[in-house]
Amino acid sequence: MKIITKKQQETAIVIRNKPESRSYFRIGLACSAIYESALPGQFVTLHLPGNLTPLLRRPFSIHRLIKENGRVIGMEILYKVVGGFTEKLTRAVAGDHIDLLGPIGNGFTVSKNFKNVALVGGGIGIAPLVSLADALKESGVSLSNSIACLGGRTSDDILCKNIFQLFGMTVRTTTDDGSEGEQALVTRPLEQWITSNHPDMIYACGPMPMLRAVADIANKNKLPCEISIETIMACGLGACLGCAVNKNETTGKYQHVCIDGPVFDAKTHIF
């Protein structure tokens, strides 16, 4: 994993803001050239100008970078409508201003030497895996030999399936109610796939129980694995210490998602 410490606060202009499904939206924001060096797995925090509530900024994964003539001119954020902030965010239209801070945190490891990888996403945890797939493809990784396991409670939570298919990846979907794909945990297709494949890396983002299960599978099979943790962040800068997670196995010190993560090595993170 690598970390970029350079970040900046800026006023981003909304390019577009459209529903992805019943509960999810995708917003495009024009941003500065600093995001040329953003890593997949990093995040940003947003604040809506003129809104006193919520007082604190809200964190969102960088879903995908928007490029024009090979240069980054903006980014997309995939978000779920779950509260007051995201409900207000759905009302943003092209030309509106949003306060943007980023890029923040550790990103996923990407290597041109990877032959194949496994991506595991649960619900909105799928969001950073698209920018990861973009980066893997750009580095020369053959995604046609790789798999994307996408899970959710219902079919409404299965996101970006077509994007991963366009990359040539094997895509397996699971839902709790059986409305999309197999009625099973998203870890089932992962376990089935690794019986005949040996990925150079397993990447996962989603609910904590899912991350624990993916980490257990990776460690049991002696496979490298990176997990991206989703949690509430009050400041996103390590000042409030509100996003503490369990201790690091090596140092014995508590880790904080915003500055030590959100991407962690599954071998060193204690759940």
Question: What structural keywords apply?
Answer:
16 strands; 7-stranded antiparallel β-sheet; Rossmann fold; alpha/beta; 271 residues; Elongation Factor Tu (Ef-tu), domain 3; 7-stranded mixed β-sheet
By CATH, the architecture of the largest domain is named 3-Layer(aba) Sandwich
Indicate the percent of residues in helices. 10-25%
Mean pLDDT: 90
- End-to-end Cα distance, whole Å, is 19 Å
Estimate nothing, just give the exact number of structural domains.
2
Largest sheet: 7 strands, antiparallel
Distinct helical segment count: 6
Secondary-structure-based class equals alpha/beta
CATH fold node name of the largest domain: Rossmann fold
Q: Please state the CA-atom Rg, rounded to the nearest Å.
A: 18 Å
Supply the CATH class of the largest domain.
Alpha Beta
Question: Strand portion, in percent?
Answer: 25-35%
Topology pattern, helix = H, strand = E: EEEEEEHEEHEHEEHEHEEEHE
